[in-house]
Amino acid sequence: MRILTVNVGSSSIKLSVFDNGDLIDKVAMSSDGGHLSERDVTNAIAAHLPIDAVGHRVVHGGSEFTGPVVIDDHVRRRLEALVDLAPLHLPVSLAGIDLVSRLLPAAPAVACFDTAFHAHLPAAAATYALPIEWRRRWRLRRYGFHGLSHAWAARRTAELYGRPVDSLRIVTCHLGAGASLAAVVNGSSVDTTMGFTPLEGLVMATRSGSVDPGLLLWLEEHAGLPPAELASTLERRSGLLALAGTSDMHTVLERAADGDPDATLALDVYVHRLCAQASAMVAAMSGLDALVFTGGVGENAALIRLRAATGLGFLGVSVDEACNDRATPDAELTKDGAAVRTFVVEAREDLQIEREVRTVVI
């Protein structure tokens, strides 16, 4: 079976082609806010025909989709209804689904959800302290995101560790433009930092992460800011961009090294939130065997890894600085004698998607 995996983001589309489980090609191309070049995508696909099935990364599955599903008209309509829950992500995912389905109408298309890995969070982790009638009527709960990346990172970490994933307690740190953590016990997510939408949790490139809801109510009531402006600001004009004037972590690190006060503050806030919430993930598991970094920042920002490990030193985390500075994924960073082993792994949602497609397309 030849499987095409499609991962559409706000600035890029990544295609991977697998033949009988073996990766034969990866193609990355730019997109403009989800506006994809049909010619570029057509040429990339044409070079790898025939395609037997297609797997699409979809950020939000709501409470309805807790595993991979073949996309039909009903599923497509249900995904459209979820757009308000992930306005930065679902529109571009749907654009990718529609484009590739036009190009490959005979190939089954499978939606693979970032929320699915967290679908069975313990009630204590998933439940908001809100009126039960609200929770039932609108299915309000913590859904969690980046599940495809967290699932792969946990599996790959177990391989590098040399133990089965079902014997480990792992904190997976997906740090990219979007960022989240997951507490993974025996291969299953038991807590995570993102919630009802991909806005909760860590400081991100343009997203605020967790903010006191009372602050938002105050802005609405006393500053007269309408909900649409609040939503746009929290999603697109907050995070590193708001603190440092840039959403690019590499630039933040360079400017902080030069003593720029805004970049220094942005870096301090980012690491503070990362360490605090990673500690919470450890508490949810009552211990830690492995810490793993993945995603664009997690894989490439050695200083972020070092500062996070230093902040988590009281838990037994310590990295070899020389090893950390030169590390390229997939690698171990652990300092000799450290109680917790630390790794950096490449984000490979495509491998997780390919695996999930095979579970529903025979």
Task: Describe the model.
- The structure is a single chain.
- With 362 residues, this protein is an alpha/beta fold.
- The chain contains 15 helices and twelve strands.
- Strands 3-2-1-4-6-5 form a six-stranded mixed beta sheet, sandwiched between helices.
- β11 and β12 form a beta hairpin.
- The relative contact order is 0.12.
Give the overall form. Answer: globular
Oligomer: single chain
Low-confidence stretches: none
Distance between the termini: 9 Å
What is the helix content?
Answer: 40-55%
Question: What is the topology?
Answer:
Blueprint: E1 2-8, E2 12-19, E3 22-30, H1 38-46, E4 53-58, E5 69-70, H2 73-81, H3 90-103, E6 109-113, H4 123-126, H5 132-138, H6 147-161, E7 169-175, E8 179-185, E9 188-192, H7 213-222, H8 227-236, H9 239-244, H10 249-257, H11 261-285, E10 290-294, H12 295-300, H13 302-311, H14 321-326, E11 331-332, E12 341-344, H15 349-360
Parallel strand pairs: 1-4, 4-6, 7-10, 10-12
Antiparallel strand pairs: 1-2, 2-3, 5-6, 7-8, 8-9, 11-12
Helix pairs in contact: 6-15, 10-11, 11-13
